[in-house]
Amino acid sequence: MIAVCGIPSDPPTALVIAALERMGFPHVVLYQRRFEETSVDLEISGGEIRGLLSGDHGHPSVDCSEVTGIYTRLMDWRLLPEVRDGSDEAAERCRAWHETLNDWIEIAPGCVMNRAAASASNRSKPYQSQLIRRAGFSVPETLVTNDPDLVRDFRARHGRLIYKSISAVRSVVRELDDEAARRLRLIRGCPVQFQRYVPGTNVRVHVVAQNVFATRVDTDQVDYRYVQEEGGRTDFFAWELPGDLAERCRDLVSGLGLALAGVDLILTDDGEAYCLEVNPSPGFSCYETRTAQPISHAVALALQRG
Prior knowledge:
Structural class: alpha+beta
CATH architecture of the largest domain: 2-Layer Sandwich
C-alpha cells in the first residue's frame, strides 16, 4: 500500500497517482484540502506504529503498517482556502491533522519521498550550498548581505551577478543589471543572496532512488522556469550525463537523506559542474511531459518496493 499526501490536481502529484493506477499498485490519497473528511489516527506502542488512514475519493481505510511507501508534496496548510476563509475551529482541526500526518511521515518505515528532516537543508540555500560543496560540486561565489556597498564591490570583482531569495520560498532568479543595481538601497530591509553568473548549459537532474533522469535545457533566459513571463525561449531535451556525473548526483542526493530530488546544474564549456540547488520536492511534471522521461513511473516503482 502506498500513501500519496498532497493535492491530487497538483501536476507532479497527479502524475504519480496516474502511474500508480496504471501499474495497479494499491494506494490511498490523503488530500490535505479535505482534512475534514479524511482521518489520520495513529499511536506508537512497543516501538510499533499502529493506526488507520482514511483516504479521499472513496478509498477505504487502510492500516498504516501496510504502507510501504509515501509520496508527499504538501503545501503550507495555513495557505489553504479552507483555513484562510474558514473558522478558527477549522484552522485548529487542520493544524492538528497536518501535525499528525507529518509526524507519521517522519517516522514511518519504507520509502518516503521525502521526510521533513532530510528536506530541511533547502530551507536555507546558503547552508545547503555548503553541503553541496562538501559533496564535491562547484558552487558559484556567493554573497548574502543587506549592505549595498558590499554588493557593488562583489560586482566589481566578478562582473555579471544574479540574485535570488535565501529561503525555500520560490523566487525568480534575475541578473543584477544596471537598473537593478540602482535599487540596491532596498536590500537594507532584507538580506539577499547574490552569486557570480556562471555561463554554461542548464541541466536538471531528477534522482529517484537510484534512477537518474537528466534534462538539458536550452534557453536564452537567466531563469528558464519563467520563460513565458519573460518572453524568451526554452527547449527541453532528455540527456545522458557525461562521465561520472550521474553517480555524483546519486551520492549528493543520498548524502542529503533524500529518496527523490531535483538537482540543478550548470555545465561550463570546460567541463566543470556547478550545482545551484537540490530541490527536495521537485516539480518534475514539466520535464516529464516535455521529454517523455518516465520519472513518475520510477517514483511509483520505488514506493511500491519500499
